[in-house]
Automatic annotation (TrEMBL):
SUPFAM superfamilies: FMN-dependent nitroreductase-like. Residues 239-290 are annotated as: Disordered. InterPro entries: Nitroreductase, Nitroreductase-like, Nitroreductase/BluB. One of its GO terms (molecular function) is oxidoreductase activity. Residues 32-209 form the Nitroreductase domain. Pfam families: Nitroreductase (PF00881). Residues 239-268 have a biased composition (Basic and acidic residues). It comes from Gordonia otitidis (strain DSM 44809 / CCUG 52243 / JCM 12355 / NBRC 100426 / IFM 10032). This is Oxidoreductase.
Amino acid sequence: MGDQTRRSTPIPTPEEAFARLDMPLGEAMMTQRAIRRVLPDPVDDAVILRCIELALQAPTGNNGQQWEFVVVKDRAVKEKLARRYRQAWNLYTRFALRYLVREDDASARTVKAVQWQVDHFEEIPVLVVACLRLGVREGRVTGLRMPHPAESGYWGSIYPSVQNLLLAARAMGLGASLTTMPLWNLTSARRILDLPVNVTPLCIVPMGWPRGRYGPSARRPVGEVTHLDGYGVRAWLRPIDEQPKHKEAQDGGPRDERPPEPRSRDQRTGTTDSAPQPDPADEATLTPPR
């Protein structure tokens, strides 16, 4: 009863969840955040499969479609993954967290949210493990490190689909987040999930009906993280409506004015006097190793 009172709306039926997929894409993106605290109530298989179906619409390298998704619902399997998660989290908090976490309320809230997920991992209704199938037949020799271009393409072939999965969950009101910590011990993860050597687990998306809610999050201004033609040239530090307009020749010729080059070291380094503070309600403000 207490869990249900944490929700502002009742758990939707699959039909009601599907109807929410009409949410505008911009709204889904602007209100997406990591929802780690979820209810233990079951999630209908149709909702999970719809999320994965939408994940499969993402682009994939060379249209290889080498993804595999393991849906974990068995308590015994979740308990094994939970033990690996706790081992990785304890290691991380012991050696890294003290140096990376800011001393503010938002960071403390995020650490608490992660800790809640660590403590209740086996109670989460569904864990979706995103994997890639890549062996000799697909051009990779197991155990040999790939060159950087191949490695980049390898990771790039799964995370667009994972983002689609997260956006689908957001639209349907299903709580979701992303973690890799339970998979840090790859050999153990393969054994727990019965994966062959040519299938590699890359991340886990825990899913359930949220105890909290989605909503907008504070983020750094786009001008602070966007560089023109090379790193350090932050040409858009000023608000967009204050930027000079590109003038095009009447005959359709090339532009004759570019955004101004930064005039000071502060502009090149992005130093500002009013850096935004993380939203205390945003569970995704902490960025530890996944």
